[in-house]
Every structure is written in structure tokens, then in C-alpha cells.
């Protein structure tokens, strides 16, 4: 018998492992290694692709809202309306303009010298829409972006300012609209809003029942701009507080709410753009409305961006006469004279 030495007495004892357990562990390890090494590359790729497909399905589950490729309105929006259509009596623009009903010449007139400019007419019961028939506002920049907008309505002679559907002819898909403009800053009772097409100019009278909601917002803005410009013309020292007090006393158009400080701020950008366009027609000795304290205060308070009117322009003199009648010029105040201009939004 071998005698134990001191080293053997303190050596660690070997751990006893059950042979069956050891064999099972070794088999499991070998199987795992074999599966990892022998697993086909295509199977691993399929697993990876499946994971990617899951991510793609989750992303595709969030649908982007569908928009009209012309007017950019949301197709699923409850506020999007389709044009109800024209009656059988409605005719195309060039046919309507050739109607004897719209002729301003009498039987004895030869019409010489009267065809130099586009004909001017009025239109009532009008509706504006795009190529697909979606009802569209025309004051939101679509015309400036060369989006073709058309309109239908009852065309009347320029001297007939009644909204009644008499004395005219129904027109369908007039346009497209080249330009829209605001005029009548001469102390008159109403502002004038007009369309220009390749064939004629049209002054708007009354929208169709279907188009009223879209037109009311524009009418509020244009009436307010007319009021503000005429008030500023009377006092070049006016403060913003004075302007607010005056505006609050103004009787708004039908179906429009009373004007307030909030109304001024809401439409501040539009108002300043109209003032900028109005100032473009100023003569050499005229003061600019944009310099009046009330306007500067509105710009500062509302955070208005100057020069943001894009293609807005005001024409005067000979150039303006070539675009529409009657000629509107901004003149120095004198007995029997008033200041007026057209503010145009052209493409």
C-alpha cells in the first residue's frame, strides 16, 4: 500500500459524474453543433426575410391619406364635395360669349374700336371646381401654382348686377381661371371679385348654394381688406388700437360674423398682402399705407411675412387697361375723384 504524502492529503477530490448524464450532455452538444453547422444558408435567409416582411407589414399598416393629384384635397375628407353638375341648357364659354343676350352693342353700332379688350360680364350662381369636379377654393394659391380651375354659372351682361337668373345664359366649365382679383377700393358699397380667362373677364355676383361655404370665407377677407384700406386712406397716422375700434363697428356682409381684433389677426397675412399690392399702384407723391403705424403694429403683432404675396400684382395705367375694363388707377385726391385699384392674383 502506497503511503499518502502531504500533497495528496490536500488535493481536491474529483467530481463524480453519472455516466448516463455525461453521455446525454455530450450528445445534446454534438446535436446542437451539428444543427448550427449543417443548417442551410437558405433557411437562415428565409428566417431573416420573414422578419423583414413582418416589419414591412407593420409599416404598410399605417396608410397615408389619399390626396387628389390636382387640387391636393384629402379624398376621404367629409368636407370634400363634388360639383353637382350643369343643366342641359349650359353651353361652353366661347358659345356663351357669342350669345346675343350678352352683346352690349345695339343694332346701329358697328362695334368699331370696341373689341380691343376682353369682354366683361357678370356671373351669378357660380361654382368653382377642378378637372375631377372637386369643389375648390380659388384663394389658397392653386391658381398661382398653375392648377387648372374651372367654373360654371349664369353669365349676365356687365350692366346687370342683379343675382337673379334672368337675362343671361348658362355656362359650363368656363376657364381655366388665369387670374382672380379684388377691386372696388373707391368707397363703393361692395368689394368686387373677378375672374379672368383667356376669353373674358367675369365679376362675381352670388355663389351657388353648394359653393356658399367656400366663398363666405373669401368674402369675409376681401370685405375686410376693402374696409381697412379705405379707413387707412383717411388717416395716415392711425394706430392699431384705432383701427381695431373702427373695424368692430363695421357691419359685415350677410352670413359673416361681426369683425373683431381676432378677425384682424386671423386675416392679417391676407390684409397686408392686399395693402402691399395696393401700394404698388401708388403715384410718386403718394404715401404708402404699409408705413402707417396701424399696419406696422398689425405686422408685428400677427407675425406677418412681408413680400409673401407671390404672384400678386397690381396693374395701372395703360397696362391695366389692356387687362380689364373699366380702367382703375390710383389718383391723387381731388374734387370729384376717388382712389381705386385692382389687386390681382395672377399665374
What does this structure look like?
By secondary structure, this protein is an alpha+beta fold. It has helices at residues 6-9, 19-38, 41-60, 93-97, 212-234, 240-247, 261-266, 268-279, 293-302, 317-323, and strands spanning 120-129, 150-157, 169-174, 179-183, 192-196, 201-204, 312-313, 343-346. An 8-stranded mixed β-sheet has the order 3-2-1-6-5-4-8-7. Helix 5 crosses helix 8. The radius of gyration is 37 Å and the shape is globular. Residues 311-341 have low confidence and may be disordered.
List keywords for this structure.
347 residues, single chain, 8 strands, 10 helices, globular, alpha+beta
Quick description:
It is built from 10 helices and 8 strands. Strands 3-2-1-6-5-4-8-7 form an 8-stranded mixed beta sheet.
SSE map:
Layout: H1 6-9, H2 19-38, H3 41-60, H4 93-97, E1 120-129, E2 150-157, E3 169-174, E4 179-183, E5 192-196, E6 201-204, H5 212-234, H6 240-247, H7 261-266, H8 268-279, H9 293-302, E7 312-313, H10 317-323, E8 343-346
Parallel strand pairs: 1-6
Antiparallel strand pairs: 1-2, 2-3, 4-5, 4-8, 5-6, 7-8
Helix pairs in contact: 5-8, 6-9
